[in-house]
What does this fold into?
Amino acid sequence: MRRSRTALGALALIFAAAGRLPAQQPAADSILDRAVAALSRARTLRADFVQQVHDPMLGTDETSSGEILRRSPGEFAMRWRRPAGDLIIVNGGVLWVYLPSTAPKQAVRQTLSGKPGESADFVSEFLDHPRRRFAVSWLRADSVGGRAADVLALVPRQNDVPYRRMIVWVDREDGLVRRVQIDDTGGERRTITLDHLRLDAPIPASSFVFRPPRGVRVIDATE
It folds into this structure.
């Protein structure tokens, strides 16, 4: 009888401990595959964005906002409303950066080689064979704009990219990416939160064209 009571007591402890175990984590690869599929099906992506940049070296935090436009393949634009006029455009393998809020008399032009991390199109970073290029892990459950999301960490398998990891918030309902955090190798952290996402919305070709204004010097940053 004593042995029976001891065995029952041990079972009770096992079941009690099991009740305290955390719930099984979602499969990170499956969540990433779902996000890739959701974006790959769309011919265009249009969304408002808020960008926060933290620079630990300078101890500064900057917030800006605007609109992101993306049309496959290879057309991407970030057009700022605040500060007005700033833009980044990728089109035809060429990157343009024009930031009149800080450098009104110059624009930077770069011919892209296709190297990972080179383009400003952060969406393409995890659309291109992400499981092969990143070690993927599930971090936590969270929400963005009141929508439930799974948070994934993507750590590059190669060290030839200018960031040490990307963190993405994937909407649990539609699989769309609602937030991206990019931790640069230099310590800077850039967080982009997307809102009012519209898939397959018409985007004019002119959205991806940049012509330097008169008097603006063009700097070629191509290596």
